[in-house]
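Worked problem 6 (solution included).
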Amino acid sequence: MFRSSLGANPLQLLALNRDVFFGIKLRNLARELGFDLKLAPTARALNDALAEDADHIALIILDLNVLKEPIDWETLRATIAAWPAIPALGFGSHTDVETLRTAKSAGLTRVVSNGEFHRNAADLIQRYALTEETDSTEL
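Solution. The predicted structure is:
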């Protein structure tokens, strides 16, 4: 079920995303689900956003598709390790097996293909996002 009362949810989604057009789609979906969305263009920016406001982040979403710059895996691993209670959902090309494996070994909660994410984004977000009532040990 979609979350009701837009704006009443103090929790947000935080996404590592470098694709402007997909960022707009993700922001619209987040709003439909009752979340605000923060976008971070790099692993360092993602880390900084968490350091600033981790208590309000319900889910980290990572676009693993390499567009211009490769992902800074060292920073990403440290970020995921620093906030283990916040679930992290990554998606990337099903043909880029190395990146998907690297993401899983970096500590992401779930890694899926682009196709699966785009088909089931709302369900995946609802399944993995923390709620005010969620105990992170339930994941």
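Discussion: The CA atoms of residues 28 and 129 lie 16 Å apart.
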